[in-house]
Structure to design on (328 residues):
């Protein structure tokens, strides 16, 4: 899918939406990091579990797990951080294969959500050093430590970076270009590990029976976000954090493969949303459709059948609880 979009600009709200096919506003928004989806909401894992599937979640981001209430209906659940954030895929895949060795039954549904490309970017072999030399990386790590050593309040994140880097005497372009290159090294690692995972499925003879979906909870801001060089954009945008509706936030990869079920080599140009993910998985797997959902199955599109395009909605907000003050 060349034009797939997430429903929200960050992990907590987007993951809950694509695993429930309900928009963030319907799920109630959030007031704290610990808010969870309503108890009446049925996630993809719960639906699969109800139909006799073994279910598992392997993530190194609690926002994609217990902090959102997404452990429901999951037989094997892990959502703690990885020993090395940028190598999380290795750790998560190893745990998955141990689970399969202990519980080899089928069918099963597994949800991975890695943090290989999440800050702090600490690339590992074999891609560490591909674009950033050891000397340049050491210098950047010194800058990063100094940048975050002393909390300084500014009106915006952008202002903080601009003022702090200037006070440190650090060239902004050097800082942000190194930051982006480190990101690219972690992305290359993540792609490489996905390739190893697919090869292992094939080696074990599971590939022909596997519906594999690759996507992302949100896009990467690259040079349009404060921490990745928004101050270098020319002409300079308004001095604020960055639009949540920018395409770099919402545009995500979406690839589906299933030998014999999903036609190979097809590129779909229609604009689609991750809100459609749950109905699509249920449809392709011949599981009962969700009674309550806001998305629609993309299976007709995949099969080349008639499909009615719909608007793609970005639904992301934060509800602030009213404050209470005791006087006297």
């Amino acid at each position: 899918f060349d034009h797939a979009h997430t429903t929200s600009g960050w992990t907590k709200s987007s993951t809950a939406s694509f695993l429930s096919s309900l928009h963030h506003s319907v799920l109630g928004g959030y007031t704290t990091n610990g808010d969870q989806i309503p108890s009446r909401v049925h996630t993809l894992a719960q639906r699969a579990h109800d139909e006799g599937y073994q279910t598992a979640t392997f993530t190194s981001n609690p926002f994609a797990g217990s902090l959102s209430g997404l452990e429901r209906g999951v037989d094997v659940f892990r959502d703690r951080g990885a020993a090395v954030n940028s190598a999380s895929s290795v750790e998560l895949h190893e745990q998955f294969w141990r689970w399969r060795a202990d519980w080899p039954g089928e069918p099963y549904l597994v949800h991975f959500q890695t943090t290989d490309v999440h800050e702090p970017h600490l690339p590992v072999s074999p891609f560490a050093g591909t674009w950033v030399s050891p000397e340049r990386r050491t210098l950047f790590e010194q800058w990063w430590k100094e940048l975050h050593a002393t909390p300084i309040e500014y009106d915006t994140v952008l202002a903080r970076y601009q003022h702090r880097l200037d006070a440190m005497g650090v060239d902004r372009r050097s800082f942000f270009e190194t930051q982006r290159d480190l990101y690219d090294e972690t992305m290359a690692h993540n792609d490489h590990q996905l390739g190893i995972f697919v090869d292992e499925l094939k080696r074990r003879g599971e590939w022909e029976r596997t519906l594999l979906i690759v996507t992302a909870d949100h896009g990467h801001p690259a040079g349009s976000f404060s921490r990745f060089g928004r101050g270098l954009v020319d002409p300079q945008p308004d001095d604020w954090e960055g639009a949540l509706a920018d395409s770099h936030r919402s545009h995500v990869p979406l690839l589906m493969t299933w030998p014999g079920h999903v036609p190979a080599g097809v590129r779909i140009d229609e604009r689609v949303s991750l809100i459609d993910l749950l109905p699509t998985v249920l449809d392709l797997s011949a599981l009962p459709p969700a009674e309550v959902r806001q998305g629609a199955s993309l299976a007709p599109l995949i099969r080349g059948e008639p499909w009615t395009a719909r608007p793609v909605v970005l639904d992301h907000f934060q509800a602030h609880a009213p404050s209470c003050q005791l006087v006297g």
The first strand starts at residue 3 and ends at 5. Strands lie at 3-5, 54-59, 76-78, 108-113, 212-215, 251-252, 254-257, 271-273.
